[in-house]
Design brief:
Helix content is 63%, strand content 4%. The protein is built from 17 helices and 6 strands.
Length: 428
Amino acid sequence: MDTIASLFSFITTPVSWVIVQFHKVYGAIFGPDTGWAWGLSIVSLVILIRICLIPLFVKQIKSTRAMQTLQPEMKKIQERYKNDKQRQSEEMMKLYKETGTNPLSSCLPILAQSPFFFALYHVLNGIATGSTIGVINDSLLASARKAHIVGAPLAAKFTDGSSKVEALGASLTDVRVVTAVMIVLMSASQFYTQRQLMTKNVDTTVKTPFMQQQKMLMYVFPVMFAVFGINFPVGVLVYWLTTNVWTMGQQMYVIRNNPTPGSKAQAAYLDRLTKHVTTHGKARKRSERTIIKAIVAKGRDRNEFERKFINGLNKAGLAAQTDGSVIQSESQAAVQNEDGTPTSAAAPKRQQPKRQSKSQRQSGTAGSKPESSAPTSLSKSSDEPEDATPEDAKPAAAAKKQPGAGNRSKAQSGQRKGPQRPKSPSKK
């Protein structure tokens, strides 16, 4: 570890200068030789570094999501060229170039932190050995050696012997207990951060080898921190525990406000967004309009949670627009369906006629006149086939010769009842 730290000695002076500046501020409040002054200086160094790394963190999120999207295509390439590794690598690089994805982007925050981490380790190791380093002079070195965090010196390690710990003015038991607790907290925070990512912010609709790798790292990283942690000084453990807590909080914020599409976190976010938008009748925040705009732009490619969100707005009388705004659906000429296709405004429902009582129906039937256009039995029916056989025409001819039968048929057809005018006798 000392050899690796010496490789980053070029950044030791800037790191030590930042710690000294923070120490001046906290030393005026808590005292220059206290563990609070030196411990908070290290914590402030971590916060300053992580703030500077926020753009890289955003790039890491985009790269991770892009890699998740490309996993099905990568799997096809691996199966197609499983016997030709060179062609497989070429196709992979071609896919990365076409989609603008960089697999190393997901490791950028860790890689960018590494120089500061090893530079801090180099500074604390110099404090432990009693040698000045960077801008830390003899007076600051003596003050740092007196600083204790809950009874453990900043430069003490879990593996240090009793003689070395006593030279720093502490007991071996205090150092072992404090470092063990900090190592456990450091590993637990790392495990929780990775577990939170896997259980809430991963697209559950796509099962890829990338998810299996992330699940494996969820158990590997905490073990690595526990193994290497026993060789870290207390000051470095403070640094690493602080950065783990920062990463956990930063990831919780991202999962809550900008979740991965298709994940459980997106389902929870869209439920909250539906309640918020339906309550106020519009999207009030810029981030909400950005999410709604992305959902509307997907059209038919929306996932289950996004379709549910659009349907929830429609049921509430709202409609999402292409610019991310939400308006009342009654005020627009066209309402957007859940699949992204526009449709005309909903037509008014057809009203059913009012049901009449029995007495009203009887009185209405008695006073009504028969329609003059009602067909008689003597006229040819419209649905009668034109090619009727002579046998079918015989009963009609027989009925025509009988006057009584004609009258009965007319009465049955709905014409006026009563005595009929006799027909003149036919001339033979």
